[in-house]
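Ticket reopened. Same input as before:
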Amino acid sequence: MADGPDQSPALLEFLLRMGDNTLILGHRVSEWCGKAPVLEEDIALANIALDLIGQTRMWLGLAAEVQGEILGEVQGDRKSADDLAFLRDAWQFRNVLLCEIPNGDFGQTLMRQFLFDAWHDCQLRQLAGSADDRVAAIAAKAAKEVTYHLDRSSGTVIGLGDGSPESHARMQTALDHLYPYVGELFLSDPVDDALSAAGIAPDPGALRPAYDATLTRVLGEATLVIPQASRARGGGRDGRMHTEHLGHLLTSMQWLQRAYPGATW
Amino acid sequence: MTAEWPLWEIFIRGQHGMSHRHMGSLHAPDAETAIRNARDVYTRRNEGVSIWVVEAAAITASSPSAKGPMFDPSESKVYRHPSFYDIPDDVGAM
Amino acid sequence: MYAQMVKSTGKGVILREEMSPEERAFQDRIDAGEKIEPKDWMPAGYRKTLIRQIGQHAHSEIVGQLPEGNWITRAPTLERKAILLAKVQDEAGHGLYLYCAAETLGISRDEMTEMLLDGRMKYSSIFNYPTLTWADMGAVGWLVDGAAIMNQVPLQRTSFGPYARAMIRICKEESFHQRQGFDIMMTMARGTDAQRAMAQDALNRFWYPSLMMFGPSDKDSVHSAQSMAWRIKMNTNDELRQKFVDQTVPQAEYLGLTVPDDSLSWNEDKGGYDFAEPDWDEFFEVISGNGPCNADRLAARTKAWDDGAWVREGLLAHAEKKRARERAAQ
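Engineering reply: fixed in the latest deploy. New output:
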């Protein structure tokens, strides 16, 4: 890592943002298991959820390690990825709001996936060249998975957008509903400034042109209209104000760990 | 009930340089989706490096009633197999 | 996972003298261990019984996603969540392989789905029981998948080629399913008092429903005899049930759990356990729709199917538009 000021607190915050995005979105996608419109889609959604859960284990695993270093904890006392996933409360989560929005219908789920994948793909490509080798290694592995996610969600968004009148209308509704949450992906704060200065992570705003190009191409082919940009609906990546949905998600996800503290599963 | 997605036959070439092999079938609205579905359904355990998809309706198969005339005649052509030839051990590997 | 056949079609084994020349030649091929392929001649009863059996088996995989899917969002660790999701996903895959095998017999997957949803086709009784605690994920993997494997391994040698090939793939993929269940049970049995109690409770609730998975005794059933002559049923229900009990009781002992059967005892003469029969009245109630979860399971499948109609139609409409554009461009 480059010499200079200690980036560990900013790095920890960044790792939580990455890991919480994949944790919460992976959880949402896994809610579809056994309920998708057709078997082939059921299996494909499970693959996406599995990839995201796997990425969560890597990002939050590293976050726990960095947290341990900051706190000067000895190996045995350090937290694990599971501790971070199952024992933090809503205000401590750092995922963007887009990831916690409920599934809605299949169209909304796939639109959410596409809007996230398009960002995730740009982000991971940049991170693969991170000055922090550990970040670069995780990003390189995840990037391959996410390139496929984007390919698949783009194909489905195009198919449904340029499909029947009903599927077109539903996809436009989904886009209108979700688009206000897109802006948060490109917000930045001192954490981002510190990391981009150190070459660890890209400046979020710098990803926007590539992202917009993907949206214009795919949504154009899908015959959908990108809504006028309103003020970005944020509050997730900095933990300032999540949606009410997150608490309910955590209530299910964390229930066993909370009900039986200290048990091994 | 609306029209069902067509059935596709899936062929996958595995890791070890063998030919594409028939893995099974699945449903998809078009060829591109069939490829993606095949990736998700038939390579969950790292089975493949290349996928072919063929719409099942496009396959022409040999007729089962012609099985005798189609395949039995090759049974008598034992000289096509290496074990037909007796080569003395002294000759070495061949 | 396997679905027990409550009744097969037909009037029992057809005697050789009563067979037509085609039927006799067909039976000779089966007796010689040949595989029957979709385009081969086959008796109408063979086709009909297979569609029922494979369809029922496929439906069981799909409905079988639900009781375990019930816990994916509540799995206690990231690793357990991934394992459970991968397992339930495999079940969707196995349903898909089996539907494809049935489709070679001249029925479509959508037709079979409609028949499941309107009650003309059945699925295994076991999936009409609820999963109430995390220990149930252990019990389902250990007992339900364990019972399923007993049935599925011999079916790899069944006479109908596409069914046998699907079973080979399924058995290969399922090899981790029972082990992951047992692994959950081991962790619970070695855990806190509450976890041990949860594990015992899960065994108590799933023991008899698991025994029911093999179906009622069929040693005198003429229908089963015909299916066995056709090699689409490989063992009697009682044989498989005995094998399952003999394999499972020592595993329960290893876990330090008690099989909920006071009459359970080792019978030296037969080289197997004597055990209590499940309540067959309950079984027939569950099969006929009055189990604890029948209504919920069918409602969940019906909702998925109905809610998904616009997606299936939309993607098909897009494929047709694309083809039309390609034609126009030529």
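The mean pLDDT of chain B is 88. The longest strand of chain B covers residues 7-13. Please confirm and we'll close it.
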